[in-house]
Design a protein that fits this description.
This protein has about 500 residues and is an alpha/beta fold. It is built from 15 helices and 19 strands. Helix 4 runs parallel beside helix 5 and helix 13 packs across helix 15. It is elongated, with a radius of gyration of 24 Å. About 55% of the residues are buried.
Length: about 500
């Protein structure tokens, strides 16, 4: 798909579909809606009135018109906050979805800023996404959209660069979606490692991986405990993007990579197991972040580490009551084998701290159902041991339109992790489960500035929501890249 930035008049652009943003105030006579309405002799206003279209957020109306270059006009309700860059992403994604079978489309942005252009480019790429890898014959959707114009009222300074950056971020998000949507018989730990290696080769990144024997030599016994019941080899993967010149900061991203989670001996009910191919979304996001950072040439040193394994019920599977010594040195009593992700993360986080000494350590993990109970399916929990880091990340998320909510690291709940027979238990009591999971992880990050992002809800959706599709969403990539960019500018 070719994206082109243009400030051609809306009336003249010759495309199959022209998408325009509409706020409630536009219907009374302003903006691109008013301009096109005049050119179509009031056809847009009449259609809006007939269909009770009011410009509210989430409303969409497709109108066939005459008198302008476009064959169809897509009215996309923006609500009152229509100038925010995140709405450019929504507008573009809606346009790409509606124009999937068109050959050309144009998207009229209400403002000239770089962030809106970038967001629109990202929205086009992600809006046109379909997962079709395993469809055949007539089941394969036929996408015809090849040319998309991003229209701005006037010329945008560095607009072409913004367009390219948005496309790169959009492609990183779709990479993550492809990984998460892949079936678990194909997306094994070794397959995830191979994907990371291929991107490392393509972009000139440093790559390293450890197999089961390598993990044993490292002493990652918590990680290995989770893998004991699986016939599939585990993998620890380290991707390293090193920028030219002196980096402004060193950031390590860690991802949970459970390529399938049966729950182990504490086996999940069948309904809860159906989508457990998505339990590697944190690792997929980690790959996407490093790939995007490298393609964008960010002046920040970025490390991406993930632990990939299955959690199965084989004859050697770990048990409740087992005790294992972690990479960091603490002994851990196993309480529930379905709380496996924190065990893998604990060893990988500790490794990142001891071997990389990052300025910031950030993990993404589909960690707890408790976080979904607290925040619903569309918001991620954000836990931080540093207030400034938390604020910076939330600021980046606000620009990118991804929903995070800061959760407390309540020290009073730490008592729930006290073990009579080991240094610590890995699971607390029923209530506050997302918090006690974060408190457990905190034991392994030392004094490093750290964020734990519980993306269990928004990483994988049971049904489409907003501009996010059903299945893997790529949630987290855009915010992480914005954070890294802001970090480099603040240095």
């Amino acid at each position: 798909m070719k994206l082109t930035l243009s400030n051609a008049p809306l009336n003249d652009i010759r495309v199959d579909l022209l998408a325009i943003p509409v706020s409630p105030s536009d219907l009374t006579g302003s903006g691109s809606f008013h301009q096109l309405d005049l050119a179509t002799n009031g056809a847009l206003h009449q259609a809006a009135k007939l269909e009770d279209f009011n410009g509210k957020s989430g409303e969409i109306l497709r109108v066939h018109v005459a008198g302008i270059g476009a064959q169809q006009v897509l009215l996309v309700g923006m609500g009152d906050d229509h100038l925010h860059p995140r709405n450019a992403r929504i507008l573009a994604a809606r346009a790409a979805q509606a124009a999937f079978k068109c050959s050309s489309a144009a998207i009229a942005l209400p403002s000239n800023d770089e962030d809106s252009v970038r967001a629109a480019a990202e929205g086009v790429i992600t809006g046109a996404y379909r997962y079709t890898a395993y469809l055949t014959g007539e089941r394969v959707p036929k996408r015809n959209l090849e040319q998309v114009f991003i229209l701005t009222p006037n010329e945008v300074q560095k607009g072409t660069q913004a367009l390219e950056r948005g496309q790169i971020i959009g492609e990183a998000i779709t990479l993550v979606r492809d990984l998460v949507n892949a079936p678990p018989n194909e997306m094994t730990p070794r397959a995830m490692a191979k994907c990371a290696e291929e991107w490392a080769r393509r972009l000139g990144l440093e790559f390293r991986e450890w197999d089961r024997e390598g993990l044993q030599k490292l002493g990652m016994n918590l990680f290995l405990a989770v893998n004991r019941g699986s016939a599939e080899e585990p993998r620890l993967v380290h991707l390293h993007y090193r920028p030219q010149g002196s980096p402004s900061a060193r950031v390590a991203f860690v991802g949970k990579g459970l390529t399938f989670d049966s729950g182990g001996l504490c086996i999940k009910p069948a309904n809860s197991m159906a989508d457990m191919k998505c339990d590697m979304a944190g690792a997929a996001v980690t790959i996407g972040i490093v790939v995007a950072a490298a393609r964008l040439g960010l002046p920040v040193e970025v490390h991406g580490l993930f632990g990939a394994t299955e959690n199965m019920t084989g004859p050697a599977a770990y048990r409740p009551g087992d005790i294992y010594k972690s990479y960091e040195g603490k002994t851990v009593e196993i309480v529930n084998t379905d709380a496996e992700g924190r065990l893998v993360l604990a060893d990988v986080l500790a490794y990142a701290v001891s071997q990389l000494a990052p300025d910031y350590l950030i993990d993404h993990a589909t960690l707890t159902g408790a976080c979904m109970v607290a925040l619903g399916p569309w918001t991620a929990g954000l836990f931080a041991n540093d207030d400034e880091l938390a604020q910076r990340y939330l600021q980046a998320a606000s620009i990118e339109g991804e929903s995070f909510w800061r959760m407390p690291l309540d020290n009073e709940l730490r008592e729930m992790l006290r073990s009579d027979v080991a240094d610590i238990k890995h699971v607390g009591e029923r209530y506050g489960g997302a918090i006690t999971a974060a408190l457990f992880l905190r034991e392994f990050v030392g004094k490093t500035k750290w964020l734990h992002l519980d993306i269990a809800g928004p990483a994988f959706l049971e049904r489409a929501h907003g501009i996010s599709p059903k299945g893997g969403t790529g949630f987290g990539v855009a915010t992480a890249i914005r954070f890294l960019e802001n970090l480099s500018q603040a240095a």
